[in-house]
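Table S7 (text form). Paired inputs.
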Amino acid sequence: MKKLKRSARLVEMTQYLLMRPHTLISLTAFADRYQSAKSSISEDLAIIKEVFEEEGLGELHTLAGAAGGVKYTPKMDKNEAKAIIERVCHQLEQPERVLPGGYLYLTDLLGQPGLLADVGRMFATAFAGREIDVIMTVETKGIPLAYATAACMNLPVVIVRRDNKVTEGSAVSINYVSGSTKRIQTMSLARRALKEQSRVLIIDDFMKAGGTVQGMMDLLYEFNAKVAGVGVFVESGELGTEERLLEDYVSLAKLTSVDLRTKQMTIVPGNFFD
């Protein structure tokens, strides 16, 4: 790369860091890239770090030593996140979104790249302090959420299938009981998709009683893997006499009441904001 003026270098360095979250980049690599002294690079990084933290864009960690450098951790300010989720809650309260069984129509929202990027940063913020190797979700609506989170955390994605695909080779399949319908269903994961002892963050779009998430947790047991966390976009508080199958999870929004006759419902920010 040709030598840049400092203003241009700051812009390019910022973009370089934003595109490589959770990646350790040495000062030497920056110095070679911009043909600048390490002292100048350090000053630039100090400016970027200050702006990131003041604007709630994340944190820039400095690691000292010969193998050191800087690492960008994306985060989102809680106030900014709450403003976004409150707008989402308002959209979700539209009567036409109520589906039979008290479910919500989410597909159109999960097709908006801007919202997905914001949700990914929220989940990355919620689980920033945990050691995670891979993001897991079950097809299909959870897939965009998982990839958005993975992009912010620089992690691979593993997709649990409802049916085993021939193109994925041998797989491990389990039966699980849906927490909301009480029906026995099947999910499977290719043997090559997940290494043993992996620390897994489960991401899902909607959780009622938690049967699907519990099924994924049971599937992880077959791989001798560990659950590092569970994140759901919307949880339902309308369980009636049912019991939630899990307690340790992070939700961004919560359906607190729904009237299937009038299609009136109330949705509030989830426990991420508690």
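Next pair, protein 2 of 2.
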Amino acid sequence: MEYLNEKAEDPSLWDDAAKAQEMMRERQRLDDGINNIKHLTQTLDDSVELIAMGEEEGDEDIIRDAEASIHALKSELDKRQIEMLLSGEVDGNDTYLEIHAGAGGTESQDWASMLLRMYTRWAEKHSMKVEVLEVHDGEEAGIKSATILVKGHNAYGMLKTESGVHRLVRISPYDSNARRHTSFASVWVYPVIDDNIEVDVSEADVRIDTYRASGAGGQHINTTDSAVRITHLKTGIVVQCQAERSQHKNRATAWAMLRARLYEEELKRREDEVNALEASKTEIGWGHQIRSYVLQPYQLVKDLRTGVENTDPQAVLDGDLDEFMEAALAQKIKGGVEHVEDVT
């Protein structure tokens, strides 16, 4: 930390702005971590002293308050432990998040738009910034697909557990007979990578298409071929961007997204070899749900990987996702450790 503080005071640091910003983020991360440890340690010491004082004076109220403080401290420690376990090469990076409606037309497209709102709300609650890179609207309602960029500390590390198929059961607002419908949508998360990570992609290995952007944006965005779609021929990976009116800017963003996707594919391949986890995109089908959101005939959100449940679906759809993410991350890490132990 002292070394970083000295570097921060060096006037030549900002000769390389990108490197300087990276160092300042690392300095801030370490500073926050140290302050958190000091806060937790001080809170524990104070609570122990209060309990001792309460027992000495026979004051049950003081003892109860101190015990409540320790219980709250444990909850905070659990969250800090999850953050400490986010030590992957790109866990701290910004992330792309894609949503695709499943079969079922308007029902699934409406569900996809609900998921887009849910993740946007989650990001806002964590003071993260969300940029919409592309949205393909549904014919009647909802969206066929969307890609967003989530910017914030540990954005990828937390959201990576959300990749998979999400299932919704509800009384359809689009069914005049008020029947119960089941809808599916898939979510795919992959990290933003910086220039320090090299991913070589030849233009000969891709197909680049331009098309007219859809959705809001005014007359200009709808009448020029500014949107860009890049298909990686070997893997079949497709990325697209229509966030800007400039085709040049959309092309640059799409290339960055493709490199990120290819890098994420390599991360998953390595992870599969070590942890024996089924994390390939080709394995995400309608039979591979990770979470069910039931609004009728009862109210329940259940993660099918960890068993975590929440009986307040509206809160979850408003972005209350931390308990699901933390449980999935803990299971992912625990599974990897157990697998390594088995091998050794």
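Residues 2-85 form a domain with the Methane Monooxygenase Hydroxylase; Chain G, domain 1 fold (CATH 1.20.58.410).
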